[in-house]
Specification:
nine-stranded mixed β-sheet, alpha/beta, about 20% strand, about 270 residues, single chain, about 30% helix, three-stranded antiparallel β-sheet
Length: about 270
């Protein structure tokens, strides 16, 4: 009888150590190749205007809907690492799948990255309604993967800090962002964190890189250190001033920085490494 009790106790102990379906503490990275080691690669973020494939950058962040499969193939053939810019927490009426978002998930106006300030072109989504949003986002991520992107930058990941039209909480945003990262991995894409600087420490384990807008102007760059300390790249953009105004600060924090116009067109000024 004592042997049976010991065996039962061992089975219970092993079961308690195994992760359950709803309680995974860290993301499963087995299906997604890690970000290449070594120096942080140079980058370009272009989601408007005619694409310039000659920009001297290793990483291109591009609009997943607008880039054709053939264009993506040519860029990959020249050694570019492609990151798929796609809305996750923001609705944009111009997207071909916009009709899949019911009126009940559409909130207040939101600025879409790539559009000038003061000209909202999107609306915040009710990120609490995951069952509604998940199939749309899953198809978007599959589109990215089908076009041979290797990573994804879901944008609109900080609605809880804005007047979104919904009573979103800190925990609502954490849950949504983690779900988005896991959904990206299921599509074999490396997920990147756009913005949401207040939750960087909690979200770093779930994302393979970060993209930040204007941390120097907002004096927030130190808060991105969890990514750089983990050996993950942080791609940073400023929209005002010149590189001489911010490069010393941003490079000092280990960021890969560029200066661009808010429309995220071709033009960029690069900080020295």
């Amino acid at each position: 009888m004592s042997g049976i009790r010991r065996a039962a106790g061992l089975v219970l102990a092993v079961a308690l150590l195994l992760p359950t379906q709803g309680c995974r503490l860290l993301p499963d990275r087995s299906e997604v190749p890690p970000w290449p080691g070594g120096p942080t690669p140079s980058w370009q973020w272009q989601v408007s205007g005619q694409l310039d494939p000659t920009v001297d950058a290793e990483v291109y962040v591009l609009d997943g809907f607008l880039i054709s499969l053939e264009t993506a193939r040519r860029l990959r053939a020249h050694g570019r690492r492609l990151v798929c810019h796609v809305e996750a927490g923001i609705y944009q009426a111009a997207r071909p799948d916009a009709a899949r978002f019911p009126a009940g998930v559409l909130g207040a106006p939101a600025r879409v990255p790539g559009q000038p300030s003061g000209t909202p072109r999107g609306r915040w989504l009710d990120i609490r309604q995951w069952s509604v949003l998940e199939p749309v986002l899953a198809d978007r991520f599959r589109l990215c993967r089908g076009k041979r992107f290797v990573a994804v930058l879901p944008v609109g990941m900080d609605g809880y800090t804005h007047r979104s039209g919904f009573p979103l909480t800190f925990d609502d945003q954490l849950a949504f962002n983690r779900r988005v990262a896991e959904l990206a991995r299921q599509a074999h894409l490396a997920p990147g964190l756009a913005g949401d600087i207040d939750q960087v420490l909690a979200l770093e384990p779930y994302f393979d890189f970060a993209v930040n807008e204007e941390c120097v102007r907002r004096t927030e760059c130190a808060r991105l250190v969890p990514f750089t300390q983990a050996g993950k790249p942080v791609f940073h953009v400023e929209y005002q001033g010149s590189t001489a105004d911010f490069c010393t600060t941003s490079v000092g924090y280990g960021l890969t920085s560029i200066r661009k116009d808010r429309d995220l067109g071709v033009r960029r000024d690069v900080c020295p490494p």
